[in-house]
Write a structure and sequence with these properties.
heterodimer; A: alpha+beta; 2 strands; B: 182 residues; alpha+beta; two-stranded antiparallel ribbon; 37% helix
Chain lengths: 97, 182
């Protein structure tokens, strides 16, 4: 589970920068991941700073449709926005999204 | 974190004669690897080997079963109380969204996961979750999340939605109805 052990700021920044998510105001901000002009996924991100609790971290990982390993790679850098788009496109081709 | 029982506790609580089990020398057996403890349990009067694949029914000796059950329960408790795993999970239906404007035509099933630091409420089919410190707060939060998702989707043209959000809209369209003023 240490692979999910990131801070709220880290995760929020990566999701904003790499996936282009724009979180709305509110206790928990929601943002849409869009691809080819369509809303594909909706991600919920808690406000504030500090470490993400494990349950919350898993819930976010599930919403971005990544394995724990892929999620860690997304947050820690090897997986870029383009790579993420490819993963999502592949899932769409397989009828999973 | 719940510690595994030490040798003397194990013997006292579960009435298992300690001389029947070969504990690792000079170490509390609870500190050892599961396979080592299992093999220790297996060195019983029945002389049957116990491995992780051994079925409980295969152990004819009742005292063997008692020892194995105790070991497995202790380990299950330890795993369940790891901070990163839910301590407790259950499923409850909700019948109302806590808003005057809309109502539920049929209940929505909510998964509740209790962690050491938080309670997560989820609607798996809608990819929704909320986190709060108590179960009742988490239920209220997920009701708001459902309401917010419906507000975002209800007027959205289907052509601008991917397959998942289209499905969420269809599901919520069936479950949500406008409340008629009394």
């Amino acid at each position: 589970m240490s692979l999910l052990n990131f801070s709220k700021q880290e995760v929020r920044n990566v999701l904003s920068d790499k996936l282009g998510l724009v979180f709305r105001a509110g206790k928990e901000g929601n943002a849409w991941f869009e691809l080819d002009g369509r809303k594909i996924l909706r991600v919920t991100m808690p406000k504030g700073r500090g470490p993400l609790p494990p349950g919350t971290a898993k819930a976010i990982r599930d919403q971005v449709k990544l394995t724990t390993q892929q999620y860690a790679e997304l947050i820690k850098c090897p997986l870029k926005g383009k790579g993420y788009q490819e993963i999502i496109r592949e899932k769409m081709r397989r009828g999973l999204l | 974190m719940i510690s595994l029982p030490r040798r003397e506790d194990f013997s006292r609580v579960y009435s298992t004669p300690s001389e029947d089990i070969q504990y690792p020398p000079d170490e509390p057996w609870c500190e050892e690897m599961p396979s080592m403890a299992l093999s220790a349990v297996g060195k019983r009067s029945s002389h049957r080997a116990v491995s992780p694949n051994t079925r409980l029914d295969d152990l004819a000796d009742r005292r063997n079963q008692s020892a194995l059950i105790s070991f497995l329960v202790a380990h299950a408790l330890r795993f369940e109380t790891e901070e990163s795993e839910p301590v407790f999970v259950r499923s409850v239906p909700i019948h109302d969204l806590n808003t005057d404007a809309i109502d539920l035509a049929e209940p929505i099933q909510i998964e509740i996961e209790h962690y050491a630091q938080e309670v997560i409420s989820k609607v798996l089919e809608l990819d929704l979750w909320a986190s709060e410190s108590t179960e009742s707060e988490a239920l209220l939060a997920i009701k708001k999340a459902i309401h917010d998702l419906w507000q975002e989707l209800k007027d959205e043209p289907e052509s601008e939605l991917g397959a998942l959000p289209r499905m969420w809209k269809r599901i919520l369209g069936k479950k949500i109805r406008t409340r008629v003023p009394a």
